[in-house]
Structure formats: structure tokens, C-alpha cells
Amino acid sequence: MMAEGLTAMIVIALGVNLFFACEQQLQYQYQNSLQKLAAIRLGKEVSDLYAIKREKVSLTRDGMIAKASSQGVIIYYKGKRLWQVIS
């Protein structure tokens, strides 16, 4: 009787831990997707500005730097290249 209760408690504890681990991973993926979406939007804006001006353009927003030139668009975040489109 006591062993069954202990086994049930272990199974429930494992389930709760698994739930929180999955939730944490989902939060990480959500933040990552928001960052990628912001980078893509900034890249779109800078490419539109380049299409209008026909000269090198740079935009900065929320720590991201987007640069557009005749070679393409590059987006940096904290010195790391997040996205690059070469034309």
C-alpha cells in the first residue's frame, strides 16, 4: 500500500517536472521567434529605404543593426549576425 503511494508520488513529481521543463523550452522558443520576427521586420524596413534612396542605409532598433547596400541586407544583434540576404 505504501509502495503504491510512493510510486504514484514519484510519477506525479516526474510529470510536474516534465511540464515545467517543456514550458521553459516553449518560452525560449517564443522569445527566439519574436527576436527573429523583429529582425526580419527591420530588414524589410531597411531594404525599403535602400530601394528608395539607392545608397547604403543603416537602421538601429532595440539593439539590432540592419544594413542595406547593393550586396544585400545584413542584420546584427550584439555584434552577432542574425540574418543575411545577399542579392
Q: What labels would you give this structure?
A:
four-stranded antiparallel beta sheet, Competence protein ComGE, 1 helix, 4 strands, 87 residues, alpha+beta, 60% helix, single chain, 28% strand
Give the strand content. Answer: 25-35%
- The class by helix and strand makeup works out as alpha+beta
Number of helices: 1
Shape: rod-shaped
Which stretches are poorly predicted, pLDDT < 50 over at least 5 residues?
A: none
Distance between the termini: 70 Å
How much is the radius of gyration in Å? Answer: 23 Å
The total of beta strands comes to 4
Q: Work out the oligomeric state of the chains in this entry.
A: single chain
Strand order of the largest sheet: 1-2-3-4
Number of domains: 1
- Mean pLDDT, to the nearest integer, reads 93
Order of helices and strands: HEEEE
Helicity range: 55-70%
Biggest sheet statistics: 4 strands, antiparallel
